Structures are given as C-alpha cells and as structure tokens.
C-alpha cells in the first residue's frame, strides 16, 4: 500500500485548548480513497476539514498533511465561488496556488494553466457555460464549477464540506460520479462531509462518524 496522503495521530481539534471539539483523532487516508464523514450538525465535522486544510491549527497531536503549494483542495459549504464572475474565471483561479509568484501576484495564470482550466471545465460538462456568470447557474452547476476549480489545482488531497447537501437526488448522483472519477483517474484522496449516512455508504471506501468528542469508523 502506498504511503498515506494524510496522517493524524492522537490529535485534539477545536478552538479552545480546555474545550476541544474532537479528541484522540487518529486517521490515515491513502491516494485514491474516498472517506465520508457523518454526524449531527455542530459536532466538529467542518472544523476537522478546516484544520486539515490548514485554516485552523490543531490543538495538539501529530498532523502530517500535504505541504506543497496547492496540494490540498478545499470546497467549503458555500463553495467560495465569485458569483459575479464567469465560470472560466472561477476555475482558472484554482490554478493560482501552483502558478509562479508573479502570476499569482497579478492573477494571470499562464498558458498551461489556462489550458488546464479548459480541460477541467470540459471534464465537468460545462464547456457551454464557460462565459456564464456563476450567479446564473443552478446549484448543481455551481458544484461542478467548484470541483473543476479543485481539479485544475491538481491537489493530492481534496476536502469537500457538504457539497451534496442541497442538491436533488439526480444531481447529487452526477456529482458523486464526478468525485469517484476524480479519485480513480487522478488518484486523489478525498474526504467528504455529508449529512446523509445512507448516501455516503454507497460511494465512500470508508465512513467515519463523529460521536461526542470522538471519531469512529462505521461499517458500510
């Protein structure tokens, strides 16, 4: 088995040292794996993803995460898209973490990154929407834009927070197929938070449930 992309050992996660949300967190994820995280609202699922993404520091423990520029892709609940800009602009912005500094400074990714953006937009089936403003798209199409933005970043680890939450069943199925393709063809490790335990059991390799202050693996 290849080395893990992510390794967490005996970690505490949260905002206050004296009142952690999660304790004794131990987790390894390998390339190509899809891990589902379930649990009630407000219990620490999103905080776990934000900590792995480097947006919050762990309170304690060992955290071995990809450290290169752009190696962690993160899709927040609100997607983080620029709604008044078009699809192409939003997706190409995903290339900036891997672009040279001067391109990042002026938000001007080079030719190879622009081509990668076009390829990613084609891959998620939005080539006819490239000039459309994100605000004009449906919820499912906006999810596709967020995934394309992550694809062009070429991460080794992708974190998705409730990216299926408000979609109808058919659209959710299409997004799931995209996620599975991303994991299989690009060998990306994916952690996805979802509120639907039945759904995650259908496409995730492993499912983790947050109970109390602990994370437990459940049978799927």
What does this structure look like?
There is one protein chain. Helices cover 33% and strands 23% of the residues. β8 (206-211) and β9 (214-218) form a beta hairpin. α4 (111-123) packs across α5 and α5 packs parallel to α6 (169-186). It contains 7 helices and 9 strands, in the order βββαββααααβαβαββ. The longest helix has 18 residues, at 169-186. The mean pLDDT is 88. With 220 residues, the protein is α/β, with parallel strands linked by helices. It folds into 2 domains: 1-66 and 158-220, Rossmann fold; 82-155, no CATH class. The strands form 2 sheets. It has a 6-stranded mixed beta sheet with strand order 5-6-7-3-8-9, sandwiched between helices.
Offer a quick outline of the entry.
The protein is built from 7 helices and 9 strands.
């Amino acid at each position: 088995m290849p080395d893990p992309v992510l390794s967490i050992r005996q970690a505490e996660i949260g905002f206050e040292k004296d009142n952690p949300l999660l304790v004794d967190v131990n987790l390894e994820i390998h390339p190509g794996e899809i891990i589902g995280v379930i649990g009630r609202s407000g219990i620490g699922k999103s905080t776990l993803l934000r900590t792995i993404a480097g947006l919050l520091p762990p309170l304690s423990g060992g955290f071995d995460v990809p450290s290169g520029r752009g190696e962690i892709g993160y899709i927040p609940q609100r997607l983080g898209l620029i709604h008044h800009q078009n699809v192409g602009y939003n997706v190409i912005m995903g290339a900036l973490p891997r672009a040279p500094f001067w391109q990042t400074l002026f938000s001007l990714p080079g030719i190879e990154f622009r081509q990668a953006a076009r390829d990613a937009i084609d891959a998620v089936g939005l080539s006819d929407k490239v000039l459309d403003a994100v605000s004009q798209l449906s919820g499912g199409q906006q999810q596709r834009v967020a995934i394309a933005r992550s694809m062009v970043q070429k991460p080794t680890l992708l974190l998705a927070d409730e990216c299926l939450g408000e979609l109808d069943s058919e659209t959710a199925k299409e997004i799931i197929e995209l996620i599975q393709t991303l994991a299989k063809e690009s060998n990306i490790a994916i952690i996805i938070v979802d509120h639907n335990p039945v759904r995650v059991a259908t496409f995730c390799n492993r499912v983790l449930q947050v109970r109390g202050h602990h994370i437990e693996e459940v049978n799927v």
